[in-house]
Amino acid sequence: MSGMPQPPRQLDSRIEIVTPENIAFHYVVAGPFRRLPAYIIDCLICTTVLVGSLIGISFAFGSAGMFAIGFGIWLLIAFAVSWFYFGLFETFWNGQTPGKRMMGLRVLSVTGQPINAMQAILRNILRAVDAMPVLGSVAIGIPLYMVALLAAAANSRYQRLGDLAAGTMVVVERRSKLRGLSQLSHPDVVRLALDLPRSLAVNRGMAQALSLYVARRDRIAPARRYEIARTLSEPLAERFGLPRDINPDLMLCALYYRTFIADTAGSAVLSPESEAAEMAAAEVSVR
Amino acid sequence: MKVAQLLERRKVRWSELEAMCRELENGHSRRLGAVGVLRFASAYRSACADLALADAYQLPPHTVQYLHDLVGRAHNQLYRSRLFQWQTWAHEMFRRVPTMILFDRAAWLAFVIFWGIFFASMALAYSSREFSLEVIGEEAMETYQRNFSQPIAGRSFEDSSMMGGFYVYNNASIGLQCFAAGLLLGVGGLFITVSNALQLGAVFGFIFTTPSRGNFIEFVTAHGPFELTAIVLSAGAGMRLGFAIVDTNGLSRMASLRKAVDRAMPTAAAAVVLFFLAAVIEGFLSPSDAPYAVKAGVAMLSTAMLVFYIVVLGLRGRIVDAD
């Protein structure tokens, strides 16, 4: 076995975090093209603040005849905004800037812990390197972020140089909705489910396959369902002593019902009529 | 127990946790109250437990996915970013930073490179006009000469504040860029340091050949010590980052860089503070009509402060560490 190539630990952009509660959960790290919209939003906010404050200061100080003082103050604001906007927001907003919050991104340490102030400031000062090369002047230029792209392409967490130095990564904070189990209470399904052997034990892989199949069968055409389900249902039908020409879709739904919903008819959850109608229609077309 | 019943039972707890996450994400932690926070912690732990047992419960994959997302969300609300710790920062600034600067070879290297090239360029520009033309350019040379042709007459408070703001913006930005560029294996920082030293040295050398030299010296004396030290420090801090990637001292490159960050960041922060001080002096004192003795006094005082900060505090910090 030693000659066999080891499978890479991480193939997609998912990474595993182990919490202090000793639970491992998954994050999706955000690639360059998820981060770009957030960056553009932040840039727009910065520009608005700078232009807005310049106009405000011009009116406030200009009317008092002290425009030069106001401009000096504005330059201080410009310095603070251009170097510390990202860093301070990420410090006080728990790893998010307004743009990142809108796009559902968050900066975390590579260990999955929150970042501290030093990491937040550092990764954003080093942005100056990541942004290279800059088209136009340094003050008003378009950063191309080629260095950041190269660095992100070279590691599995899409970290740019600032991230690498600060030990941080950007993750997607997904907010999925809890979807309940698929409601299967067509009389045929329930009847077949109760006909299956009492001693039926479904292992983990089978349970996964069943729930993936049932969650997606709504989006699969009946003939295709038949084709997909047959590989699993034929050997099972043989083992349970059921007729070989049993509808494979029905068979898998019944197994799902037994595994996830109920052992007995009494505890079945009633489903809307449309579901039953659709089931019936599907069966007709399969036959 | 069947999954359907289990889900039915757990769903309440999960959606409660989800609602609390939403409150916390919007910054309404007060609205939860003490009891709410306790409930949040326990709801989070039970969601963790459900996720851990997801396989044993044979939860369907999309429910597991939901739990991963929910636990991740709650995790980020429970463990929050640590803010500035002012006490440790004071300790950093007055104990660790001076010691690190004093015994940091990268800072000394930046010091030697900067001043070496500065004086070499100054000598060349003083002796040959072609060199100045090459480095500074004719247009800039004329501007410098014109700007310092009149004795410094002082400037209004307004103009001083504007220029103070400009110096912070411009000089501190250059310093931070110099620091950031150091990350490119030290070469980027080296390049900026060398080009800065060349330019500055040439301007000094060139001005000395003109009658404007007296006014020029009077202008640059007061803020020179802080500003030039700041540029050397930020370049040194940047190079520390870059060199750490090349010379890893037996660590992995990433670990070596991480370790260097710990040393370089406080130094860069000290440089930014120095840039601020220099900008205030450059904005207000340098162009004022105060007698030269005052400006020279400020220069000496700031040099003494720098020596005290780096050498005295640096050595003391080392003695304290040795204990």
Structural class of chain A: alpha+beta
Separation, N- and C-terminal Cα atoms of chain A = 49 Å
According to DSSP, the number of beta strands of chain B is 0
Largest sheet of chain B: none
What is the gist of this entry?
The complex is a heterodimer of chains A (287) and B (323). Chain A is α+β, with helices and mostly antiparallel strands and 287 residues long. Chain A has helices at residues 32-63, 67-92, 98-103, 117-125, 127-130, 146-153, 161-166, 187-195, 204-216, 222-240, 248-261, 273-286; strands at 14-18, 24-29, 105-109, 134-136, 141-143, 168-172.
Primary descriptors:
heterodimer; A: about 290 residues; alpha+beta; 12 helices; elongated; disordered C terminus; B: about 325 residues; mainly alpha; 2 domains
Written account of the structure:
The complex is a heterodimer of chains A (287) and B (323). With 287 residues, chain A is of the alpha+beta class. Chain A folds into two domains: 14-172, no CATH class; 187-286, no CATH class. In chain A, 56% of the residues lie in helices and 9% in strands. Chain A contains twelve helices and six strands. In chain A, the strands form two sheets. Chain A has a four-stranded antiparallel beta sheet. In chain A, a hairpin with a 4-residue loop joins β4 and β5 (141-143). In chain A, α8 (187-195) packs across α11 and α9 crosses α11 (248-261). Chain A starts with 13 loop residues before the first strand and ends with a helix. The longest helix of chain B is centred in the last third of the chain and has 32 residues, at 253-284. Chain B has 14 helices and no strands. Chain B is elongated, with a radius of gyration of 29 Å. In chain B, α6 (105-127) packs across α7 (129-135), α6 (105-127) crosses α12 and α7 packs across α10 (187-208). Chain B folds into two domains: 3-78, no CATH class; 86-322, no CATH class. With 323 residues, chain B is mostly helical. Chains A and B meet through β2, α2, α4, α5 and α7 of A and α1, α2, α4, α9 and α13 of B.
